Structure formats: structure tokens, C-alpha cells
Amino acid sequence: MKTKIVVLILVLSVLLSGCVNSEEKTVKIAQQFGLAYAPLQLAKELDLIEKHLPDYTVEWKQIMNTATIREGMLSSDLDIGFMGIPPFLIGYDKGMNWKIFRGLSKAPLGLTYNKDKISSLEEIDIKHKIALPQPGSIQHILLAMYLERETGTANSLDDYLLTISHPDGQLALLSNSEVAAHFTSPPYIFEELKEDNVDFLVDGNEAFGGEFTFIVGVVRDKFNNQEAIDGINKGVDEAVEMIINDPGKAAEILAPIYGLDEETTLSYLTWDGMDFNNEILGIEKFSGFMLRNDYIETEILEEDVLNEQ
Amino acid sequence: MNNRKFIYILLLILSWELISRVVGNDQLMPTSLVIAEKLWYELIEGKLWLYAFYSIVAIFIGLGISTILALSISLFSIKYKWVMDFFKFLNSILHPLPGIAILPILIIWFGVGYKAIFALVIHSVLWPIITNLFLALETFPKTLSMVGDNYEMGLLRKFWYIYFPGIMPSFISGIKTGWARAFRAVISAEMFFGVIGATGGLGWYLVKKRVFLDTTGIFAGLVVIIIIGIILERFVFNKLEKITIEKWGLKS
Fold first, then answer.
1. Co-location of A101 and A228 in the same domain
2. Which end of chain A is flanked by fewer CB atoms within 10 Å, N or C?
3. pTM to 2 decimals?
């Protein structure tokens, strides 16, 4: 009996130790896989953020999709996340306390199609699918924005959507499957466009009706640590500068991580439309569209969601 | 349902209510009342039952195909020893493979529609049923099969009148395991590649709720999944046992 109590106390103490806030300063950053996150990957490889935050432990977490990052930030397991603007707005609308603290990249997103399967969007019918990462993702919202402008109804093709990860979507588009079009982002879109029978149906800017930031940096309100945010910004800015001024070296570091050769990595990093900077463009246009089409319920203004410095 | 189970359910709901009120965040842990309200709304307005229907249809078609496959394999195993040996070997290789692990391959082979789902369900269901059937066949009393020989029955008649009732208990327990695995497989597959047809199944419903950060909606989906499990266990499989093995006096 005594040993049982001792064991129980030990188990409980181990379980509860996780709840006690340690004094050590840590910052937990989530990133996803993709070319648009290149500055983060670079900052991670070269310890650029650690350099500007010597007193901090920086924990990097590579996460598969935005929903997981959002859940991690909701459970306080993550402090900083990087994602598209629409998923951020959905979380904000649902009551998540978080703010955008920087932009990271613009990228040539777009809807590609397999010419052997269809020749225009009108030909999409019950036999076909449009693949994209998930409902509410920037790819889905961009497609809906395009459809709203072209057909008057944002969700006119919702019945034909198929959610699937970028690499599986690429596979499905090129193979003999029902996926006839794919709304995706670099590097997958670059690889698809290399094929003879694949072309752009709509590119991201055309769908949006202007320029927009693809990936933004988001911080949980409770994290509330300007010192750490400044450090992260400096580290990421340094990585951005490196990609702009010395893309060859950046490609050399990133190539093995992306599983590509250096030459390809360099061409992808410098691809027309790949633009790394801290601008934040398009918040209110996204939020206006999403409100109008019931993806969110409240009006969200830029000043509500920007983390004031 | 006996009274004790009602008390357990009540206790469960009560403690959930208590903890969720302490947590006080609907995005993390909605209260039971909020979930109940959402469930009602989703069933009436959100067509949650239609999602459930899609999943169940997919499972039952897959389950049906696997059952026929497993029974035919067993039939041939009685006649030819090597058939059983061969499928035992296949079983030992393929049974440990989780459905979700072979999903990427299934997508390449069968695309992202119903075909891939059926292939996945068949993979999840076939091996547990075969394992159970083989076990029953191997321990099948030789004297009984000799009775069939005495009557000069053909293979099919022998299978139907002698083997089939004898292996029924194992067959039903195989289907039960298979059903549970198929349910999991279908929901994971739907979560993996989203919508199939104009409306998706329960997995797709969960994904939709998840990407729009609708935690209460996720719980509503989970409640439906639990209820379907209970209904099938209590009313379908128990009924099946009653009209077969219990009636035949095979259940101890």
C-alpha cells in the first residue's frame, strides 16, 4: 500500500511538473514546409534568432498544416506561428487572442490545371475534382474570390473541392485521377508547371485582384514579449537579406533540406513573384470578402489585428 | 440498457460539465449543454446525419465485399491446403500494416474517390475476418466434416450446412473487429483526403469543423461517431448473434 502511494505521488509530481512555469525564457516557433517559409528555415539553420536572443531557448517545430499550428497556439504550446492571412482571420473571428507581427513572403500561388483533363473551369463537372490544402486556407479563399468575381457565387465549385496535402495533390493532378485542377503554392506549383500538360488557369494575384502577402508571422497575445518579437524580427530580416543579396549561398544551405539540387533551389528562390519582405498586404480585402461570404462572422479591421510595436 | 449504465453516463456528463465550467473556454472544452445544442443544430440544419450516412454506406459496401472475399477464401482453404497456407502468409505480412500507412499508395493506384476508400476498408476488414475464420477452421472437429462426407455432400453443401454454422461465432467476432477497424479507416481516410462525392463523410465533417476552429462542432461529430458505434454493437451485431449462434446453441 505504501509503495502504491509513493508511486502515485511520483507520477503526479511528474505530471504536474509540466504545469509549473519554468523561469527559463523560451520562445516556441512553428513553421510549415514550403518555399515561402525559406527565411525561417534559413534563420533556423544559421541560428540567426538565437544570435539576437542569447538569453532565450528557441524551440522550432515543423508542423504539417495551419490548423495544427492554430491548435498548438490555442493550447499555449506554441508562441509564434507562420501562416496565410485567411486562417489567421478565422481564428481571430472565433475568439483567439493573437496578432500579426510581421509579413514574411509573397509568392506566386495559383490554380493549375491538367490540359489533358479539362480546358477551362466551366468544364469542371461531377467527374472532376479541384485539389487544395484545406477549406479556409488561403488557396481556398483565393479560389472563392476569383469565383465570386467571375461567376457571382463564391462557392459555386465547392462541391468539387478535394482537400489534400500539396505533394499528394501534385501527384493526383499529374496522375490519371479525377483531380483536374490544383490550387497550390511553391515549390509544388513550379514542379507542376514544368510538365507540358500543366498550365496556370488563374494566378494568385489575378484571383485576389491585386497584391497580397502570402505568409505572415502571428504571435499569441499572452506571449506578450516585445523583446523576443524584436529578436525574431531581426533574425528573420537577416535571413531575408541573405536570400536577396546572396541567393546562391541561401540555396546552398536550403537545397539539402528541400531535397532539391542547388541550381533548382536557386531558381525557385529567385522565381518571378517570390518576394521576401516584412510587408503585410491584403488583410482588409481578405476579411471583407470572408465576412461577405460567411467564412467569418465579425468585421475585422487591420488595426484590430496588427501587433503595435 | 441497465440502470447502472445510465448512472455511468450521468456521472460522465456531470464531470464533463464541471471540468468544462472550470476551464471556461469553449474553444478548448465546451460545456455539455453547448455541445448538445450544437449537435441538435448540426443534425437538423447542418445535415450531420447525411455525413454519417455517407460514411456508413462506404463502410458497409467495403464490409460486404470483404466478407464475400473472406468466405470464398475459406471455402477454397477447406478444399486446398495451400490456399490457407498462402493467405496465412499474406496475412502475416499485410495484417500489421495500418490502413492510414498505405493510403498514399492507394491514392496513386485508385485515385481519391470511392475506389480508394473501398480498397482501404477491404484491407482493414479482410485480415481480421480471415484470421478468425482460419482459427475456427483449424480447430474444426474432424468428425463433423466426416459426417458431411458420409452424406456424400459436395463442397458447397458441406460448407453451408456443416462448416458455416460451426465457424459462425468466430465469423461474427471477426466482423465485429473488422467493423471497428473499417470505421476508423474510413474516418481517417476522409480526414486525409477530404470530400468524396458532393458530400463527404464524418471524417470530412470533422476536418471542416477543425479548419474553421469550431471545437463544439468537432465534439458534436464525435458524439455521433460514438452513438453509431453503440447502435451497431447493441442492435446489429447482438441481433446477428441472437438469430444465429444463440439460436443454434453455440454461445456458451
1. yes
2. N
3. 0.79
